[in-house]
Specification:
Blueprint (H helix, E strand, L loop, with lengths): L1 H11 L5 E4 L8 E7 H13 L6 E10 L24 E9 L5 E7 L14 E4 L8 H12 L1 E4 L28 E6 L4 E6 L5
């Protein structure tokens, strides 16, 4: 079944830039794909509606930060993809699980949307939302958006999970400072969270 799935992926992505990634830990029931955002919504629609992937569910969404902006220098086959943006520092990884065949599909998605100068990507990643196809993606996309700074195109539910509104610090990114520069406390009179510079009290 694994070979048939690979052939089907090659067929539906024949006109899109994609690459299979080697997964040395699990080779028998796992397929890893690296795709651009342009073809991700098309691919996820096939995973949801195609009879080949009967009973596929979304298990998890997480963000993989690329160390030193080095796009899969070791491990993943990234050389076949075109229009790679070197300024990007992270990928969004989708974990799909087939209940019928017990296969896992890991889809590595990177955004290739450039700004008007066609040089530098916007500050945050732009990935198409799949909440309409997989309702389980709603909470996971909110988490990735709040903690990793990923912007999902077409997402309707933009509420924060933990951070207060207006806070765009993205605490799960590696560039987030590890030392505390602000202290936060709840003010019951104003019914809001207050941030002040850290005060040392002995």
């Amino acid at each position: 079944m694994l070979t048939n799935n690979k052939l089907f992926f090659k067929y539906i992505l024949s006109s899109c830039p994609f690459s299979f990634a080697d997964n040395t830990a699990q080779k028998t029931k796992t397929i890893s794909l690296v795709v651009t955002n342009d073809s991700f919504l098309y691919l996820s629609t096939h995973l949801k509606l195609s009879s080949v992937f009967f009973g596929t569910q979304l298990s998890d969404i997480f963000t993989y930060e690329i160390p030193n902006h080095d796009l899969f220098k070791s491990g993943l086959a990234y050389q076949n993809l075109m229009q790679v943006n070197k300024s990007q520092s992270s990928l969004v990884v989708y974990n799909f699980h087939s209940l019928y065949t017990q296969d896992r599909f890991f889809i590595f998605v990177y955004s290739n949307l450039l700004n008007n100068k066609s040089r530098v990507l916007n500050a945050n990643q732009l990935i198409d939302s799949i909440t309409e196809l997989f309702p389980a993606a709603n909470w996971l996309e909110r988490e990735a958006s709040e903690l990793y700074g990923v912007n999902f195109i077409g997402k309707k539910d933009l509420r924060n999970l933990m951070l207060q509104y207006g806070d765009s610090s993205c605490p799960f990114q590696k560039s987030f400072p590890t030392i505390g520069l602000k202290e936060m406390y709840y003010d019951p009179t104003k019914d809001t969270l207050i941030q002040n510079p850290v005060t040392v009290q002995l």
